[in-house]
Amino acid sequence: MSEPDWRALLIEAARKDIETRTRLARSGELFNGYHPEMEAVHNANADLLERVIGAIGWPGRHALSDEGAGAAFLIIQHAIARPALQRRALALMLDAIPEGQANALDAAYLADRIAIFEGGEQTFATQFDWDANGQLSPGPTRDPATLDDRRASVGLPPIADSIAETRASAAAEGERAPVDVAQRRAEFEAWARRVGWRA
Length: 199
Description:
single chain; 199 residues; mainly alpha; 8 helices; DUF6624
């Protein structure tokens, strides 16, 4: 039996993720907790990526082109209910960076996401959430005084630019702050424990 066309499968899976998100965002359904349909797509795509990694290791740019590797990154970034897979993928990405098979910017996003889900501080402030003032703001971040230097080291713009862009993008999609931020955070904590991010 011939090896599956991993590149085509990953690209199609990423396309389904984007299409599902766009449709649910248009209807407003996306922004009320973790929508079950979106969760199902993320989990199915995580299953695919796990098979790809098992077969060929990290799906890098040399093997799968920029498009295939980009699809793999989108899938792993959205595999939020799979702590072990995200941690494994980050280690593989870091090993692949010196060979040009992955890039530091993608690794920065994934490392930040893992840190936030684990209840820690992120390094590059790529992960945002609603704050007590009803604004999208970076989640807990270490050493704010040197943040823009760290961001520049992986190709990110100054944090002020990203804050403005993130807030504008959310407003354009019709995303609004939750009515009860404390309840939303409690629900997130419960979800994080349920899927294995927290003890």
